[in-house]
Amino acid sequence: MKTTTSTQYAHNIQLSEQRTCEQRHLVAQREEEIARLHARPGAGEAPAGFLANEGRVTCVIPAVGGGLVVPRFVRRRGDGQVEMVAGASHNDPVYISEIFLAPDYSRIPTDPMGAWFLQLLTRGPARFNALTEAAHELADWEPYAEIVRYRCWEQEHRLINAEITELTSHCTLLQESISNCQGRLEAGGVPFLLRNLEGRANLPHHLGFPHCGRRAHLGVGGAPI
Q1: Domain end position, chosen among 48, 74, 99
Q2: Mean pLDDT per 10-residue interval, the chain, length 225 residues
Q3: Which domain holds residue 176?
Q4: Fewest C-beta in 10 Å: which of 73, 91, 195, 220?
């Protein structure tokens, strides 16, 4: 029994050492591939307008030789996104991604957004530009991206609400026009004049009247044109 246990233990040790050697070999191959890519012409030179990443962006992008790598050079845009290249050659494709601010849950409770900050976010261009310029100077890129993203979404939300208000107003005017039209049809005795159509299953379809259901253009007083 002891002999069997010792044999199994030795076999496990041998397998463990074999896996360790395989992993070291794979690491050496990867390091050699990285060194080869960096030695290519143009490698290590930042494209125009790009900066060395230096931990600014942590997401990964596809590498030319396969696999994924952290981008070596990055450039931020004015819409909360960043452009990234692997940095292996001048012909590296440019990848674009959004970056987000990671919550710091060690700060409990979190500081609420003050009214002064909300005003900078949502008021006129002068205040917002002052806010973005200050955020642009921060070492981390995520606060600037989140501020720009908030402004963009807040403005879109405001425009959609304005459109909803306008459509609701038009819908109310249309409903009033429908009710008035119904009253005129009833007062004019039109249902009585056309009472011969009541109960008919097959009505003529040859008349080329315009289709209903299209959005009406309203004239003065809300009457459909």
Answers
A1: 99
A2: 61 74 72 57 74 90 86 90 89 91 76 88 94 94 94 96 97 97 96 90 64 55 49
A3: 112-196
A4: 220
